[in-house]
């Protein structure tokens, strides 16, 4: 008998207008009534494996140890594997399709120690059609893991290095400019870039942002509420990345930015002209911790 | 003392932007702290008894035994009865308005064995107005059932055969064509028809679909991802019904189809002409189980 | 060791499309696995402290005793205090920003008996940026309270009378007319006014409603379903306030009314003319209790 788990963290693109999420949770509850399901989000855009992968990676260090169920699965019913991946260091098992969705979170959880394909039909629900693996394959696997069924019981072993990797976009330098990508636009319109605060140290304040056919300036700010009305700020967000933000206002809405867009950051022209008299503001100085 | 219940499965048209759902769950928690509430969905369109009834029927076989609370209640505060219906075979009690919402799920749970109207005010919350029966009548009834209060304590007995029946639309044959109805459009734009796979056996592939003023062709496919880009597929969905689908794309969006619409399926003309050379594809051959 | 709590009631403007809510709940579960979180709503409009305050006040008397976590926090990371406020009479502790959000609910819970600012960093999560106090400050405070950590441990004492008060708008009389305000438009389009049924007793039926540049008449009704099709009703809602409503239809949609709008109620002209022959309908007669 393997370890039992008490917590299932659940993320999907199912939305909550249909009963998909409720049915998955009902299957888990029927098989493993002691397990508590914590919904991370089900509002991932349909089929958006990348967005889901990033959301899971942002969340993973805060999850209670247990089983992590993630389902964004445009290839459901096809040859893509359904897998359970153990990350022993995190004390968790990640369950979902092998389409890159789990990769970044597993890596942040210390890496995959073992994996199986969920091929053993004794742990599936019988189903008239193959389109709802969340209900018929993933939920029972999660529940049986919670009940102490060993990972190796659920199906054929998979070499962790054959799991599909995640793709985290890197910034690149282009003639002194920093070419970045929008990772995430949150509910409040904050625009998270794949930019580490250290990468901004070479630029004075304000920083020039180019995207689509526009150029805007933004200044470093310690918090959203420190951004002047009508201005754009560059804030070190809760994940330690740079976000373009506005005060009580959607920066993404103003700028027309969405996940996946390219934003190029460079020294602002007016700043460059005045370089001799501008005292550069280092981000560590403007960054506060609450 | 009757049986105690541990699980409440909860479906409504309350949405989650208001605090309705949270208040209902708070009332249940205050009275029966041991009960776990599993939300099926609260995204049913306002007043859509039919859509809610179908969602509940799709989910019911997967629910953990316990109390099922369903509230879509345009007649709240009027003469419609508030009821609790025991389906002994399913080990569950269904609680909600007697407006047809519960009927199909109760039938799938083996049929009603006993029922009461929730008329005993000792089990109601005092309320200044009659508009929130979910909070004031249904939630306390659910919680007291979980605590082991007998069904018969909650109010006057109701003859199960007097409960309002549900209406499940049937297909009909019209000169060799199959006149079907859209039961459900899910988040992904899959269009579920009230069509059993066996009803398609008489048609070769592709099948012609007529609706509104349009005609489209669709081919059987084993899964969503097996549908060619830009084409329409007919997939046996997770409930054993035929769904019109596209690959990583909303079929309903393309076709302008919504729940309640009529779709007529018939032999595609070009297929009929070539009948001698087309090898008919039987659905059982294209249907795969995962 | 102080009292332990079993229930956390949680309201925010986080929405559920991002993983904010799931992460907050994961932090609570990691620290206090025995605590059950009941979501009130996370659909408060971004930054809408007033709307959140009203939702919390509507819900508070129905909450299970425990910790109430409310986060609508446009000033996150600024000088606004993060607080925990004990309302001993309600048996609850309210946790959130000190921006007026908690005030009405605390008052309805018998008033603040003690309060602290959440300044002790031993009870914070380390965080790279100050923008997600829900995760880094509020969630751990809530969880430690659930585990029996004393309120006074969490930070510096705050005089309850220095907490920011809530603002509940009052009606006013203007030459015999009642000038009211829309408190809330719910999912069904019901328009809750800050009007007590007693305030309507001076008017015959129908009542004239003036707002924007329009005048409409509405009649008292015992429930939504008692309102004639196409007409407007004045219903005593589930909170004991007057709501403008329609039958299976959004009154707010028809009238273009939103939270914060002004509606002036007065004797309808045609009614006034016929006063001699109209028998006034007192609200207590038309008001039913379920």
Give the tags:
homotrimer, 290 residues, alpha+beta, Rossmann fold, 2 domains, six-stranded mixed beta sheet, 7 helices, elongated, disordered C terminus
Topology, pairings included?
The structure is a homotrimer of 290-residue chains.
Chain A: E1 7-12, H1 20-31, E2 36-41, H2 49-59, E3 67-71, E4 82-87, E5 92-97, H3 103-108, E6 114-117, H4 133-146, E7 172-174, E8 177-185, E9 191-193, E10 207-211, E11 214-221, E12 233-236, E13 242-245, H5 251-255, E14 262-267, H6 269-273, H7 283-286
Parallel strand pairs in A: 1-2, 1-3, 3-5, 11-12
Antiparallel strand pairs in A: 4-5, 4-6, 7-8, 8-9, 8-14, 9-13, 10-11, 10-14, 12-13
Helix pairs in contact in A: 1-4
What does this molecule look like?
Three copies of one chain form a homotrimer. Chain A has 290 residues and is α+β, with helices and mostly antiparallel strands. Chain A folds into two domains: 156 residues, S-adenosyl-l-methionine hydroxide adenosyltransferase, N-terminal (Rossmann fold, 3-Layer(aba) Sandwich); 114 residues, Bacterial fluorinating enzyme like (Elongation Factor Tu (Ef-tu), domain 3), CATH 2.40.30. Chain A has seven helices and 14 strands. In chain A, the strands form two sheets. Chain A has a seven-stranded mixed beta barrel. Chain A has a six-stranded mixed β-sheet with strand order 2-1-3-5-4-6, sandwiched between helices. In chain A, a hairpin with a 2-residue loop joins β7 and β8. In chain A, α1 packs parallel to α4. The longest helix of chain A is centred in the middle third of the chain and has 14 residues. The radius of gyration of chain A is 22 Å and the shape is elongated. The termini of chain A are far apart. The C terminus of chain A is likely disordered. Chains in contact: A-B, A-C, B-C. The interface between A and B is large, with 35 and 44 residues.
